[in-house]
Design brief:
The complex is a heterodimer of chains A (146) and B (54). Chain A is an alpha+beta fold and 146 residues long. Chain A has one domain: Aminopeptidase (3-Layer(aba) Sandwich), CATH 3.40.630. Helix content of chain A is 25%, strand content 40%. In chain A, strands 2, 3, 4, 5, 6, 7, 8, 9 and 10 form a nine-stranded mixed sheet that branches. In chain A, helix 1 crosses helix 2. The longest helix of chain A has 19 residues. Chain A is globular. The chains are: A alpha+beta (146), B alpha+beta (54). At the A-B interface, strand 1, strand 2, strand 3, strand 4 and strand 5 of A face strand 1, strand 2 and helix 1 of B. Strand 1 of chain A pairs antiparallel with strand 1 of chain B.
Chain lengths: 146, 54
């Protein structure tokens, strides 16, 4: 995967930080992987914006920083780094609302050809993962590095 | 005067994390705690690819 991405930082390879840069300025983003279960191991991928004033993390804000492809490519790269360190396990991700999940889906569509080289991507409907297809609405996503 | 192109030094290629030793952990941040609790419920019902019982 060779998409442009933001420089991103980690201490333990479970949590990553980077700064989105655009018309709205610099926005601190936090990406975190947390284990959900064993056998098979599944990790949750969550990410959000860190409010510099309150310290709160949220994914309900639309940043409008005109860099969503770069942000998504950065998150995809953190998955690669996480897998390098912890192994190729299933990674589960969903949005905070159906609208947000749909937005993620559109973003995945945009770089699907590139990220499909490294990852199997599934969309979840009714608790059942299906190979990701464009123009299908999913409840969540399941990702596993090949 | 020659034109100069502004380069964003925050963007790179190649996918290597920069390892630092002082990143604040958000393991117990309410946002991430809530995300994990919600995801555990959803994942418990998932039929994972490649794990179907025969």
């Amino acid at each position: 995967m060779n998409l442009p991405h933001y420089n991103y930082f980690t201490t333990d390879f479970r949590e990553y930080e980077f700064y989105s840069e655009g018309p709205k300025g610099k926005i601190r983003k936090i990406v975190r992987f947390q284990q959900l279960q064993n056998e098979p191991e599944i990790y949750n991928l969550a990410f959000g914006d860190k409010n510099p004033e309150t310290g709160e993390v949220s994914d309900s804000i639309t940043s409008n920083n005109n860099d969503r492809d770069i942000v998504l490519a950065t998150v995809a790269n953190t998955i690669n780094n996480f897998c390098d360190y912890y192994g190729n396990h299933f990674i589960y991700a969903t949005g905070s609302t159906p609208v947000r999940t749909r937005l993620y889906q559109i973003e995945i569509n945009g770089i699907l050809n590139e990220i499909s080289i490294d990852f199997d991507i599934y969309g979840v409907i009714g608790g059942v993962p299906h190979p990701f297809e464009k123009n299908v609405n999913y409840e969540a996503f399941l990702i596993k590095r090949k | 005067m020659s034109a100069t192109k502004k380069v964003n030094s925050n963007i790179s290629y190649g996918g290597r994390a920069i390892v630092v030793d002082n990143l604040q952990s958000h393991e117990n941040d309410p946002f991430f705690v809530k995300k994990v609790e919600e995801a555990k419920i959803a994942v418990a019902k998932l039929k994972l690819p490649g794990t179907e019982k025969k």
